[in-house]
Amino acid sequence: MAQQRREIDKANFNQGAVLPYNLRLLDFEGAMQDVYDFFYDVNSHLADRDLSRLDELLRPAICSGVISDMLTESLAKHSRSLTVNAYFNGHPDLIVKGAYPGDSVKAGEKGVEIKSTRKKGGAVDTHGGRKQWMCVFVYEVDSEGEPAIDRAPLRFREVYLGQVEPDDFRRNERSELGTRTSTLDKDGIQKIRSNWIYLDDSPLS
Q1: Dihedral angle at the C-alpha atoms of 111, 115, 119, 125, nearest 10 degrees?
Q2: Which are the contacts of 92, defined by CB distance < 8 A and separation ≥ 6?
Q3: Are 6 and 40 a contacting pair, CB within 8 Å?
Q4: What's the CA gap between 172 and 130, in Å, rounded?
Q5: Which residues pair with 113 in a beta bridge?
Q6: What's this model's pTM, rounded to 2 decimal places?
Q7: What pLDDT was estimated at residue 179?
C-alpha cells in the first residue's frame, strides 16, 4: 500500500494563542508540514524497498531528537525574527536574529527552546530549569496497526508554548550512570498547556 501524505488541519490551531518574537501560527503550520513531508518522502522510499518506516527504525528518544532538530530548523526558516542558535548544544534552540554575536550563545534568554515527545500533555525532560520560552510538540506513532505496511503516518497531537521560570521545574533523581534532568512541575505544565498552539484529538488514521 502506498504511504499516506499527512496534512496539517488548520482548524486545530488556537487563534488566541500568545506568540512571542513575531511568531505566527503560519510558522508552526509550515514547520509541522515540513516534518510530515519529510517522513512521507523517506517512508515512501523505504516502503518501495520493503523496509520498515523511519519512525519505526529509530528508537523513541532518537526519533524525538531528530524531530526536534527538524522543527528547529524549519521554524527558523519560516520565522521572521528567529534563527537557529549556532552554538553547539547552546540554549535556547532558536534565538532572536542579531541578539547575540554571530547568532551564537551558550545560554541566552532571547529565544525559544524546542522539544518533542510522545508523552501526552507535554511533560518532557530538560537538562536544567531556567527562565525560557519553551515549545513542546507532542507526536504519535502508529506501532500497533496491522498489517504494518498499512500503519498510519506520524501525527502531531499537541503543541504547547509558554514562558516558564526556574521555580517551575522539579529535579529528577539521577541514577549512577544517568545525567541529571529536570521536568516542568504541575504549575509549569499548566503554564504551557494554557497557551496551547495546536490540538488534534481525531482518530489515528
Answers
A1: -90
A2: 85, 108, 109, 111, 112, 113, 114, 132, 133
A3: yes
A4: 15
A5: 134
A6: 0.90
A7: 58
Burial 77-87 (b: 16+ CB within 10 A, else e): ebbebbbbbeb
CA separation for the pair 17, 85 (Å, rounded): 24
Q: From the CB of residue 44, how many other CB atoms can be counted at a distance below 10 Å?
A: 14
Q: What is the pLDDT of residues 59-104, one digit of tens each?
A: 999 999 999 999 999 999 999 999 999 999 999 999 999 999 999 9
